[in-house]
Amino acid sequence: MDKFREIRPIVLGVAVRNKKLLVSESIDSVKNQLFCRCLGGGIEFCETSEMALKREYMEELGIPINIKNLIKVVENIFEYEGKRAHEIVFLYKIDIDDKDYKEEYKAVEDGKDFVAKWVDINEFIEERKIIYPTEIITYLQKIN
């Protein structure tokens, strides 16, 4: 699937622990903008959003997750690296077991290494850091 030509169904896990959100950081080099995103990824054909989220966490971090509930489904139309994209995003509240908790995770996505780390939720609420999709901020405000 070409994520810049088709509507892409994805799922993201919103993991909050001690008022910190687990995210990865990326940069849009065209906008010169650093932003954060919760972990997750594409939903494959004949795979539920919950199955996809569990698979993505196993692939990226090598850990199981506990899915608590669906927070919201968001339609996200955005521009990244100068290209327009369109996603339908399932946002789930998730927990990570104490035995799997780390301050920082070294992870792999699409063959590229990245770091997932816990960031204080006030960084996003107070707009000191950018998070996409922005609807996550509403959820963070409710739990703060």
The count of domains is 1
How confident is the prediction overall: mean pLDDT? 95
Helix content: 10-25%
- Please state the overall shape, judged from the principal axes of the Cα atoms: globular
CATH first level? Alpha Beta
Instruction: Count every helix, treating DSSP H or I runs of 4 or more residues as helices.
Output: 3
> What separation lies between the terminal Cα atoms?
37 Å
Q: Using the coordinates shown, work out and report the CATH topology.
A: Nucleoside Triphosphate Pyrophosphohydrolase
Task: Describe this structure as you would to a colleague.
This protein is α+β, with helices and mostly antiparallel strands. It has a single domain (7-143), classed as Nucleoside Triphosphate Pyrophosphohydrolase (Alpha-Beta Complex). Helix content is 17%, strand content 51%. It has helices at residues 49-60, 121-125, 136-143; strands at 7-17, 20-28, 33-37, 39-42, 66-80, 83-95, 104-109, 112-120, 131-132. Strands 1, 2, 3, 4, 5, 6, 7, 8 and 9 form a 9-stranded mixed sheet that branches. It starts with 6 loop residues before the first strand and ends with a helix. The mean pLDDT is 95.
How is the topology of this model organized?
Blueprint: E1 7-17, E2 20-28, E3 33-37, E4 39-42, H1 49-60, E5 66-80, E6 83-95, E7 104-109, E8 112-120, H2 121-125, E9 131-132, H3 136-143
Parallel strand pairs: 1-6, 3-9
Antiparallel strand pairs: 1-2, 1-4, 2-3, 2-8, 5-6, 7-8
Summarize the structure.
This protein is of the alpha+beta class.
Q: Which labels suit this protein?
A:
single chain; 144 residues; alpha+beta; Nucleoside Triphosphate Pyrophosphohydrolase; nine-stranded mixed beta sheet; 3 helices; 17% helix; globular
